[in-house]
Amino acid sequence: KYTINRAGTAKLQVDTYYDTASKLLYSTNRTLRIRESAEKYALTIKMPTSSDDKNGTTVNADRQNERFEYEIGVVGTSLSDSADYINKYIPDISMDDPRQELIKMLVISNKREKIMLGKDNILFEMVFDDVTYQNPITSQNCKEYQVEIELKSDFLHRANLKHLTDYIDGLALGLNPTTESKYKRGYVMTES
Question: What is the pLDDT along the chain (192 residues), one digit of tens a residue?
């Protein structure tokens, strides 16, 4: 049995994803975003933990998406103030090279409701997302609903994450598991 703790009411968060015009981050399964939530901003970089599969998604043997995440609080949406941080984790992008200029590629408005699940001192975060993808380049929008489950305990407990996702998959018919990032998923859905 899992203990369930509702983390409050649904909250709006807006994620702005940046990439080069040649989609360098997209093609290497990395993301760079600035998240605005409750008038606070955070810059997040996500990257693969190991080798990619043929679709450019890092997955383990259990088909779970595994990525490193680096995050810092920022004052606003300007990337120039975070150039050193970006260059530390994405050294193949030079913030001074106009050919590698980071541009706004996707904006995701997400009404998110969180539930914390616990079992045997292992903590999971389950979120229900009401997502709107907005592509500023094509002016295309699209909407979908998602359920996301993250392991919030030590990485060694990832087998327990697999047990939980298998359990939920057996209960909730109609869910379509994906290992794509929201950036990849949203970009594909709004690129034309």
Answer: 888 888 778 899 999 999 999 999 999 999 999 999 999 999 999 998 764 444 444 445 555 567 788 999 999 888 988 989 999 999 988 877 777 889 999 999 999 999 998 888 889 999 999 999 999 999 999 999 998 888 888 777 778 888 888 888 888 878 887 878 899 999 999 998
- Residue 53 CA to residue 66 CA, distance in Å, equals 12
DSSP for 91-126 reads TT--TT-GGG--EEEEEEEEEEEEEEEEETTEEEEE
53 contact partners, CB below 8 Å, separation of at least 6 = 59
State the burial class of residue 61 (Cβ atoms within 10 Å of its Cβ: 0-12, 13-18, 19+): exposed
